[in-house]
Amino acid sequence: EDQVTQSPEALRLQEGESSSLNCSYTVSGLRGLFWYRQDPGKGPEFLFTLYSAGEEKEKERLKATLTKKESFLHITAPKPEDSATYLCAVQDFRGGSEKLVFGKGTKLTVNP
Amino acid sequence: ETGVTQTPRHLVMGMTNKKSLKCEQHLGHNAMYWYKQSAKKPLELMFVYNFKEQTENNSVPSRFSPECPNSSHLFLHLHTLQPEDSALYLCASSQPPTDTQYFGPGTRLTVL
To answer: Could you say which residues of chain A have pLDDT below 70?
Structure first.
């Protein structure tokens, strides 16, 4: 059974203090790993898709990386507007399913 | 309207009521999804529709009944719900074979 574990559950940073969020996963055959951002009371907003180990993607202050067992979301010099819950999800090749398995998320708070 | 829209945004209902949630996507996608998001739990996939055909039912109780009349619209009919069904219900869409799912803002459901 596919599993996704995100750590830490919550993270408080000062503005400009860089850090990383972790997503560990277990999947029979990785089809894709997804990062989303979710603000309170809103739906998840797509950030990145990673498909193979060694792949990296960047968007503004965010950089996502992927290994065979985990993914990191690196946040460089964060700003208060980066405060949100960051969700990780995996999709496997079994049966051609579109099913995403999500982690519980990391709630990031960036203080000014 | 752009992206994925959901109505209503908030819904309060008694256990004996019947109500429906509506989702509409303006992205030209052919796959649509219902997810449930409860506090402290990961997003749970409920139903998947591909080209209007239901391809996944994730062991959801029969008091939740989905309907997909065309590729742009998705409904979730609710009847005789329980208080534990209170949650944020999210709709998403994607365009096969692309895996990225785009989410709507969600309907916050409270069952009294």
So the answer is: 95-97
